[in-house]
Amino acid sequence: xxxxxxxxxxxxxxxxxxxxxxxxxxxxxxxxxxxxxxxxxxxxxxxxxxxxxxxxxxxxxxxxxxxxxxxxxxxxxxxxxxxxxxxxxxxxxxxxxxxxxxxxxxxxxxxxxxxxxxxxxxxxxxxxxxxxxxxxxxxxxxxxxxxxxxxxxxxxxxxxxxxxxxxxxxxxxxxxxxxxxxxxxxxxxxxxxxxxxxxxxxxxxxxxxxxxxxxxxxxxxxxxxxxxxxxxxxxxxxxxxxxxxxxxxxxxxxxxxxxxxxxxxxxxxxxxxxxxxxxxxxxxxxxxxxxxxxxxxxxxxxxxxxxxxxxxxxxxxxxxxxxxxxxxxxxxxxxxxxxxxxxxxxxxxxxxxxxxxxxxxxxxxxxxxxxxxxxxxxxxxxxxxxxxxxxxxxxxxxxxxxxxxxxxxxxxxxxxxxxxxxxxxxxxxxxxxxxxxxxxxxxxxxxxxxxxxxxxxxxxxxxxxxxxxxxxxxxxxxxxxxxxxxxxxxxxxxxxxxxxxxxxxxxxxxxxxxxxxxxxxxxxxxxxxxxxxxxxxxxxxxxxxxxxxxxxxxxxxxxxxxxxxxxxxxxxxxxxxxxxx
Length: 581
Description:
Blueprint: H1 2-23, E1 39-41, E2 55-58, E3 66-68, E4 73-80, E5 87-92, E6 97-107, H2 109-122, E7 127-129, E8 137-138, E9 143-147, E10 157-164, E11 170-171, E12 190-202, E13 205-208, E14 212-218, E15 224-226, E16 232-234, E17 237-245, E18 259-264, E19 267-273, H3 291-294, E20 300-303, E21 315-318, E22 324-325, E23 333-340, E24 346-355, E25 368-370, E26 376-380, E27 383-387, E28 396-398, E29 400-402, E30 421-423, E31 429-439, E32 450-455, E33 461-463, E34 467-469, E35 472-479, E36 481-487, E37 493-496, E38 502-503, E39 509-515, E40 521-528, E41 531-532, E42 536-538, E43 543-547, E44 558-567, E45 572-580
Parallel strand pairs: 16-24, 38-45
Antiparallel strand pairs: 1-2, 2-10, 3-9, 4-5, 4-7, 4-8, 5-6, 6-9, 6-10, 10-11, 12-13, 12-14, 12-17, 14-15, 17-20, 17-22, 18-19, 18-23, 19-21, 23-24, 25-28, 26-27, 27-31, 29-30, 30-36, 31-35, 32-33, 32-36, 34-35, 37-39, 39-43, 40-41, 40-44, 42-43, 44-45
């Protein structure tokens, strides 16, 4: 009995070691496509408010390329969603990882039958399923379906990920050699621009100067220099942001960098490296970039400094949070910034910064201190704001104001029914949502359709959710900005691909196109002869496709078809008709 217990204990001890060793094997994973591998996006690319957690593989511009399991395992998850990953499979492997195959077109016939049965049982077209481990085993190289363009996809491709199964931490496959591309990458990243920002502290709150941009130039030896020849001048404390981009071989796509380092007087101070992204952390991308630059650029504006509320582990090192401090002697500092791609190509920018003896601390910005270590509540001018603990990336002086200028909204049928109110200083991201409430006098018969709208600088209005209650419209937002109350009373527009009484005996599908002028399609349902039916939804194109099921549809008869959808404000539209099949 003791021998058996010892054997079990040894097996339990050795299992994670074996799994870890398998993870280090570069040939553990087979390519998921049987075509030359070219990338259109790499791991960790910084999008507007998140990191890209996988690689995007080109599928030669078409839908339908066969997909294969990258390693032995079992299908652990099957999802269908109108946005995001669309149709996706998750395969769990014995080495402790899970591979993800997103934006698929079709699954295998066995998986499609399972999916169809579960959708009908639950009466849900969008679905998230977790089959038992023994139900769908796969071997390395088994066909699992076809690549597609489903979900939030801008064109046919495969989004492929490898994650740690225990915590869903997304791993960078390229530097590990798990995926090898057809075109070797020998192109170093391009440094586009440098930004220098002074930071003063007032009552414990960091006050950042307006970023000062500096152009750079590439030298004959491949290094980079500032276009200016004189040293930069900085206040007592400052930090840097490097704007960079990357290319791979002979493809035209732009890519994100893999690693950035900051050294001061030869001492490494900051290391920012894209690997091991937890999905609970991916929004910290907002705190790791110069946000106003990042949201309007395909480049990456990486902050070589760590904000106090940024918990992102991608900052492998951040000595004194990356801040350049001159101290009492005021000696100039030698700065070196290196930017590296995931193939090991490196670009270097070196320059000098000296103290600005004429530096003047900024004036008090006004407002109340909002800490990132506690809840913050404020109410004035008919606007109430509640910011939860941890939502801010650092303490701020919070201000809000009424926008006095007249704004001419560009959305037909939608106009402000409250003052236009600005929260914070410009558009600033939050890690988690704040609560907003705007007072508005709305007729009782319109209150069910009242909601919040975000107002752009040009006067455009976009839906921001919310509902009416006790004299105000209340909602949430993950960004500061400018808001007002509107009422959306326009129902969605619904069109069918077939006319009333059409002969569809030769058709396999019907398509409904549903669009909305403001708040978007929130939910939908459909039926044939009173029986609930499944739709494949493509949110970006506003299309809902039903594939006829011969087992449920009697041939040679006339059938009734009905589709109903509702927008975010609760307005509904229904299309009814008959067809012959």
